[in-house]
Structures are given as structure tokens and as C-alpha cells.
Amino acid sequence: MTPVPHRSTAPRAADDADEQQPRSPLRLRLRPQAPATGYVDGAWWPRSHDLTTELPALLAVLNVRLGEIPRVNYHLSDWDTAPRRIAADGIRVRLDGFWTRPAHTVDLIASDRRRLTLLLVPPDTSSAAAHEAMMRAAHRDNTDTVEDLFSSTALQTQVPQPRE
Question: Does some domain include residue 28?
Fold first, then answer.
């Protein structure tokens, strides 16, 4: 008699089902690694205002460039309320929201204190405007401020007022 592989008729666990669903690609553009110039090192276009949902995928990708990233700084009006810490890939990440830091930016701080500052493109931005801003922010020779990036691209008409 030939053995027959056992096939379970039980439904798959939620984790298995989640792994099978295609993930949306991360909308991120980074400047080439070069000496630091300018105000931003690239741009990120998250899909929502939920930092705890959006951040783990970003951290996983940037881990290749920076290594472990245990701290993230952001402007409070850019995101929904977030906890002080989250776990991402087994790393405890401290989330520091400030009213005084530049809006529409996110700072990712590595364990060795290297910092990456990203232009934050609002989630509800049109594809054309987001693409233009992201490409400009990630250009090797970009030295524009966040305000310059917003005013010189189609983002200027789409910037929502700070959320409170």
C-alpha cells in the first residue's frame, strides 16, 4: 500500500491566509547614497494616516540601508494618534511625535545615530502629484526644503490643513 499524504480540511490560520494575500508595494523613493546635502533624503507616500500600520513595512525596507531603526520622529498633525512604542520585526521602535518639527517629514534614526529624513507625501495625494514630489525629493542634487518641494510641485494645491 502506498502512503497518501495527509491533507487537512481545517481552515488555514489567519496568519497563513494573510501571508498569501499580495501586499501593496511600498511607495518610497530614496536619494542615492551620497554625502548628505539638502533637507530630505527621499520621499514616502503612505496609504493611510495610521503610523502603526504604515511604519513596519518602511522599517523593513530601510533596515537594509540603515540597520536597526529604534527611533522615529514625526509631526503630530501628519498622523492619527500613535502609541509611544511599537514592535517591528522584533525591534522595539520608539515613536516621538512633535508639534515643533517640520510637518510632512519623518526622521528615521538608526542605532548608530545615522538619520534619514523623508518627505511625507499625504496619503490622499493624486498619483501624478505624489510621483512628481517623490522624484524631485529623491533626486541626487536636490537641496530643496520641504516647503520648496510642496510649492514647486502639484502638492501645493493638495496639502491638507494640519489635523488636530
Answer: no
CA distance 80 to 98: 13
Residue 150 within any structural domain of the chain: yes
Question: Has residue 89 been placed in a domain?
Answer: yes
Residue 25: pLDDT over 90: no
pLDDT of 114-135, one tens digit each?
999 999 999 999 999 999 999 9
Residue 86 domain boundaries: 37-157
Number of domains in the chain: 1
Please state the pTM of the whole predicted model.
0.79
Letter string b/e over residues 126-146, b meaning 16 or more CB atoms within 10 A of that residue's CB? eeebbbbbbebbbeeebebeb
Q: Report pLDDT digits (tens) over 125-162.
A: 999 999 999 999 999 999 999 999 988 877 765 444 55
Instruction: List residues bridging with 30 in a β-sheet.
Output: 42
Strand order through the sheet with 105-109: 28-30, 42-44, 115-120, 105-109, 71-75, 91-98, 85-88
Does any domain span residue 121?
yes
At 149, give phi and psi (nearest 5°): -60, -40
Question: DSSP alpha helices (H): ranges in the chain?
Answer: 14-20, 51-66, 127-137, 146-151
